[in-house]
Amino acid sequence: MATTSLVEQLADEVSSGSRRAVSQALSLIESTKPQDVDSADALLDILLLRQAPTNTRRIGITGAPGVGKSTMLERFGLELINSGHRVAILPVDPSSKKTGGSILGDKVRMPQLSLHNEAFIRPSPSKATMGGTTATTSDAIVVCEAAGFDTVIVETVGVGQSETEAADMVDLFMLLVMPQSGDDMQGMKRGIMEVADAIVITKSDLSLEAARRTQAMYTSAVRLMQPSKPQWETPVVHASATVDDGLHDVMSLVEKFFVSERAAAINNVRKEQRIAWFDDLVRRAVVSAVRNNPTVDQFIAEQIDLVASGRVTPSTAVQRCMRSVSITVKEQL
Amino acid sequence: MATTSLVEQLADEVSSGSRRAVSQALSLIESTKPQDVDSADALLDILLLRQAPTNTRRIGITGAPGVGKSTMLERFGLELINSGHRVAILPVDPSSKKTGGSILGDKVRMPQLSLHNEAFIRPSPSKATMGGTTATTSDAIVVCEAAGFDTVIVETVGVGQSETEAADMVDLFMLLVMPQSGDDMQGMKRGIMEVADAIVITKSDLSLEAARRTQAMYTSAVRLMQPSKPQWETPVVHASATVDDGLHDVMSLVEKFFVSERAAAINNVRKEQRIAWFDDLVRRAVVSAVRNNPTVDQFIAEQIDLVASGRVTPSTAVQRCMRSVSITVKEQL
């Protein structure tokens, strides 16, 4: 993929909703080859210029392994399609290096949804490049929306740094937790409860009583914290994807979240998300440019040793670094 | 303060425990004059080389205005002194620009403690320089410990970014909250509950029942989260500084936290805190060096506008920035 016309053709095919084109576009975005990176940028530029800010919905779903994400996604996704939506699901697996996704895995995980015409499932690899998971997945959201998928669900597995990143990519971030007794409490990962816009206690069919008790505990806990979004009270519901308990509650909390009054607010949040993400990427890029100088990197490593052992304060060490390094910035505009 | 001998003399006086010297050293650390910055670095170097890693205790206390921090600090500080400790209190006020501190204010806030020979109170200004509050306050901790204050208490007012920074500066971070009824819940600031090593419900004298109810709510909430430190269960106690209720509980949770088995762990945590802080300072310094070029800053600002309006993705904008800017790093070792 090299010439502009090929990129434009791909953009046209994506806009027409071609699944094959969406797959191809996502592969381009995931690629680290320099010419592909350029093509991906050009493609995104075209798609963004075309795409009006529509009423798309970006939903994040996270939860520990075994919490029942797949079953919930399958039911929830089909329910959304029944309500007239087109649904793209982007599972992000930070432990997986493979691109293109494990199609068989998703066929097993979401048997009906993975075959459905109005659904598109594509695992998002976690690239160890600048921007990592977020850059790839956020760009993938843009492609899916351009192809007419009005609902994009980003699924994360609840380990690593990826959850708070995922929360920053979506409008509505749902946390799935299992019913817990007082004894088997594992404790949520740091920071995750505070970015959750909704909490779903799964597997209520196993014990409705345990689900309700857990629901009460989380309800009480979220009331102690500031809401994840202004004018929004984090709902805590229980649900079972196997016996349909509470699926209606999940659907209606989603509808409530995306009511039209919130549309403007959502656009503002997305704007802030983009700026924050750009800011973060610039910082990473600049720091990595500096540390790419082996002598400088060595000098910084030595200062880290001094700081670690407590012989030099961090502020002194930084002043030494900045005195010992000359950063020249030239614009090549 | 210019010559090495003067800095050495000041270091000697600090080490001897002179309150006047500690005050002078802290003023030096707070100063932004270039020659003072150099002297402060030299002073810290000397103090750090001398100071063996002793059994000092760094305690953070935070809470919203009106929660009763002053009353609690007064009683808690006197109690520590009665147990044979020497206590330095560093109130950090991010809204205050003045240096040297409002001595009168602290005399009113902590009448007995502010006059006590074994106590030292010095408000830490929030400098708008690289590293901000953290750099100044962390260096101030080093000076106070060098002067023989084995317990340093960093007090923050529970607004702004300062709490999580404060939590990263201390060993034990205590969150003070007021008794709450179900109706008047304000919600804790994001992230703060998860870095709290202990939660103290204040003003239990107003209503012991409300204090106990609030205690139960927070106990339940912290059990849903991962502990702030490995092998540590965040205690939730209620206390009143006016009728001495629960002060014993606060003292014994502090003793429990600092039991000798945890000493090694605390040193490791401090080491990680120093490295994380150095890393953060280096990032800020490098980014600010790049953005000090007006043309580059302008170019980045333009990209931010494009990103904000959604016409360019953050990843594309960053690639443009890095292509348009040449960062040359030269070592001057």
Explained architecture:
The structure is a homodimer of 333-residue chains. Chain A has three domains: 1-52, Up-down Bundle (Single alpha-helices involved in coiled-coils or other helix-helix interfaces); 54-261, Rossmann fold (3-Layer(aba) Sandwich); 293-332. Helix content of chain A is 51%, strand content 14%. Chain A has 13 helices and nine strands. Chain A has helices spanning 4-15, 19-30, 34-50, 69-82, 103-109, 132-146, 162-167, 192-195, 208-223, 247-257, 263-291, 294-308, 314-324, and strands spanning 57-63, 87-93, 119-121, 124-125, 151-156, 172-177, 198-201, 236-238, 325-331. In chain A, strands 1, 2, 3, 4, 5, 6, 7 and 8 form an eight-stranded parallel beta sheet that branches. At the A-B interface, α3, α6, α9, α11 and α12 of A face α3, α6, α9, α11 and α12 of B. β9 (325-331) of chain A pairs antiparallel with β8 (325-331) of chain B.
Search tags:
Rossmann fold; eight-stranded parallel beta sheet; 333 residues; Single alpha-helices involved in coiled-coils or other helix-helix interfaces; globular; 9 strands; alpha/beta; 13 helices; homodimer; 51% helix
Itemize the secondary structure elements and their pairings.
Two copies of one chain form a homodimer.
Chain A (H helix, E strand, L loop, with lengths): L3 H12 L3 H12 L3 H17 L6 E7 L5 H14 L4 E7 L9 H7 L9 E3 L2 E2 L6 H15 L4 E6 L5 H6 L4 E6 L14 H4 L2 E4 L6 H16 L12 E3 L8 H11 L5 H29 L2 H15 L5 H11 E7 L2
Helix pairs in contact in A: 1-2, 1-3, 2-3, 2-6, 3-6, 12-13
